[in-house]
Amino acid sequence: MRIAPIAPGTRPELASAEAAIAAERGRVSPLYQVLLNSPAIAHGWEQLLTAVRNRSSLPADLRELVILRVAVLNRAPYEFDAHVPHAQKAGVRDEKIDALRAEPLAALFTGLERSVLELTDTMTRDIEVPDTLFAAVSASLDAQAMIDLTVTIAAYNMVSRFLVALQIGH
After folding, report:
1. Whole-angstrom Cα distance, residue 111 to residue 130?
2. Burial environment of residue 144 by CB neighbours within 10 A (0 to 12, 13 to 18, 19 or more)
3. Burial of 129 by CB count in 10 Å (0-12 exposed, 13-18 middle, 19+ buried)?
4. Predicted confidence band of residue 55 (pLDDT cuts 50, 70, 90)
5. What is the DSSP code string of 27-58?
6. CA 149 and chain centroid, separation
7. Burial 4-18 (b: 16+ CB within 10 A, else e)
8. Whether the model pTM is above 0.90
9. Half-sphere exposure of 84 toward its Cβ, with a 13 Å CA cutoff?
């Protein structure tokens, strides 16, 4: 790690922030231990990512496919490994999890999954999304789900790039 993590319980002024993170996440992970070097950022990060993971209208299996694909594209193995159990719990089969590492994506994904993963690839690699791709995805998702999907892709690009830049989990 390029920035020293703050071990939980070592700084009394962070006790309430650590408690809030642990309440939502079950623990203060290495990611949050580094983020706690900036308490305001740690708080905002936790609020955003909790909304993305736990309060989104996006089905859990699609959400986890997106998160895993972003981790692959951004070469963030810590993020990938952290989300495999969430994907499995959401019903994503191991062969689909493994297939997220392949180029091009395997035919075993459903039409909606393929379009969502294409959107993930495009947002991550190219930033700009062609109207035809947006229309293809939004034909299957309502406005709220499209917002939730787009924010999930963007947020996990932030997460993976933060992890990789600071060498968290290496």
Report:
1. 18
2. exposed
3. middle
4. very high
5. S--HHHHHHTTSHHHHHHHHHHHHHHHHS-SS
6. 11
7. ebbebeeeeebeebb
8. yes
9. 14
